[in-house]
Amino acid sequence: MKLFGYWRSSATYRVRIALALKGLDYDYAPVNLLKGEQKTDAYRAKNPTGLVPTLATNDGAMLNQSLAIMEYLEEVHPSPSIVPGNAAAKANIRAIAATIACEAQPLMNLRIQQYLKNEGGFDDDAVSAWLNTWPANAMSAVEEMLSRSAGDFCVGDTPSMADCCLVPQMFAAERFGIDTSSFSKMNAVYERCQQHPAFEKAHPLNQPDAPEQ
């Protein structure tokens, strides 16, 4: 398999964690978002949205959207599972993952922030207020969801697709100055995940396209 992505992309980060949790090998093809490589015709032929990640499978398929890619990995490589448990547990995992991936992260995406500044006339304080209102509100909902489902991880005591989404969200929240101090459940899971080898392997700073520190 080949993963097209960017070291600091939250969506790519999710898929890297899933691949690491499943112990799957893959080639990595960096797509430099700052240089606009995602907008080229060559890349858009792989991903019409011009976003990362894209997963090229062993049978030649080009898969887009991180949640769909993780579901694909679960179907093709079911063990170890990233959607473990009974039907209710699986639904909780998918609900947390979707809330982060669909309700929180898109509203803090770099292209949204650039639009707010360049087209909307938002100054830095206004952008900060946006981030601490809309993405933070979605994260607050996740905190409530974890109060019902969390054990050592987001749902029970096994890392899942929900954790694959939570960790990049918390990483990005730190980067963009979103106040997460009241999210005790999310912070506890985040800290625990940081100690897990799969999450460490997938960390942005451990990627080949990360800039030298």
Structure description:
The chain has 213 residues and is α+β, with helices and mostly antiparallel strands. The chain has 2 domains: 2-80, Glutaredoxin, CATH 3.40.30.10; 87-199, Glutathione S-transferase Yfyf (Class Pi), Chain A, domain 2 (Up-down Bundle). It is built from 10 helices and 4 strands; from the N terminus they run βαβαββαααααααα. A 4-stranded mixed sheet has the order 2-1-3-4, with helices on one face. α1 links the parallel β1 (2-5) and β2 (27-30). α1 packs parallel to α3, α1 runs antiparallel to α8 and α4 runs parallel beside α8. The longest helix is centred in the middle third of the chain and has 18 residues, at 87-104. It is globular and about 50 Å long.
Provide the fold topology.
Layout: E1 2-5, H1 10-21, E2 27-30, H2 41-44, E3 54-56, E4 62-64, H3 66-76, H4 87-104, H5 110-118, H6 124-131, H7 134-149, H8 161-176, H9 184-194, H10 197-202
Parallel strand pairs: 1-2
Antiparallel strand pairs: 1-3, 3-4
Gist?
This protein has 213 residues and is α+β, with helices and mostly antiparallel strands. The chain has 2 domains: 2-80, Glutaredoxin (3-Layer(aba) Sandwich); 87-199, Glutathione S-transferase Yfyf (Class Pi), Chain A, domain 2. The protein is built from 10 helices and 4 strands, in the order βαβαββαααααααα.
Features:
213 residues; alpha+beta; Glutaredoxin; Glutathione S-transferase Yfyf (Class Pi), Chain A, domain 2; four-stranded mixed sheet; 10 helices; globular
